[in-house]
Amino acid sequence: MTFTPNLFQGKTALVTGGTQGIGGAIARQLAAMGANVIAAGLPPFAMDEFKGSGVTLAELNVASEDSVKALFAGIQQLDIVINCAGIIKRGAEHDVDVFEQVIAVNLTGTMRICSAARPLLKEGKGCIVNLASMLSFFGGGLVPGYSASKGGVAQLTKSLAIAYAADGIRVNAVAPGWIATPLTKALQEDPARSGPILQRTPLNRWGTPEDIGNVAAFLCTPAASFMTGAVVPVDGGYLVS
């Protein structure tokens, strides 16, 4: 019953960073399960990825309070929020200005969306799923801003799970491992980088956006009704190896 096509019928879902990659896969998964899905992000949009999906695309900059307010002004009902909006600036994040930019999108942007969504989610006892990372658990020398932001997302998830429980809102997170997306294309095509990644991954493959979409969708279903404050690795075993 967990993945029945009409499970989310009558529900409205917002997926930030939902216009491509992992966010896009989650948006399509929720729509396939019957939800009215708003996939919000920065243009240009990959329109071909959403043909026939029933997903509505909207412009959103999570680092802008005005942009968030404009989006939420048009939302009357909200049952599911997925926070996927994020950026990474490999090699440049030791510059404090770049560091702050990454934090502003990945961490503060997540909090901004959660705060804006809380009143609507309270009405329907909804749920939030945040996107953490393997770098929520260990550091990355080239990406101190990304690592700090994703560590923060994990702690934010736990904190909001406590704070929002009285409203009937569950808050969980998914921590993706190495996922085959355009952002990791260079790594996938470089044997010197891809080789060690696969050697450490017990399931011996790159993950897909759909792997993350399935787990994110599960966390929104009644099957996960007693889960809150969890940070769930979806990494092919990378974290434990």
Overall description:
There is one protein chain. With 241 residues, this protein is an alpha/beta fold. It has helices spanning 21-32, 65-72, 96-124, 144-164, 185-188, 191-200, 209-220; strands spanning 12-16, 36-41, 56-59, 80-83, 127-131, 170-176, 231-234. Strands 3-2-1-4-5-6-7 form a 7-stranded parallel β-sheet, with helices on both faces. Helix 2 (65-72) packs parallel to helix 3 (96-124) and helix 3 packs parallel to helix 4 (144-164). It starts with 11 loop residues before the first strand and ends in a 7-residue tail after the last strand. The model has no long low-confidence stretch (mean pLDDT 96).
Which tags fit this structure?
7 helices, 241 residues, alpha/beta
How would you sum up this structure in a few lines?
With 241 residues, this protein is of the alpha/beta class. It contains seven helices and seven strands, in the order E-H-E-E-H-E-H-E-H-E-H-H-H-E. Helix 1 (21-32) crosses helix 7 (209-220), helix 2 (65-72) runs parallel beside helix 3 (96-124) and helix 3 packs parallel to helix 4.
Layout of strands and helices, then pairs:
Elements: E1 12-16, H1 21-32, E2 36-41, E3 56-59, H2 65-72, E4 80-83, H3 96-124, E5 127-131, H4 144-164, E6 170-176, H5 185-188, H6 191-200, H7 209-220, E7 231-234
Parallel strand pairs: 1-2, 1-4, 2-3, 4-5, 5-6, 6-7
The profile of the biggest β sheet is: 7 strands, parallel
The residue ranges in which pLDDT falls below 50 over 5 or more consecutive positions are none
Distance between the termini: 32 Å
Radius of gyration: 17 Å
Oligomer: single chain
Would you list the SSEs in sequence order as H and E? EHEEHEHEHEHHHE
What structural class do helix, strand and pairing data support? alpha/beta
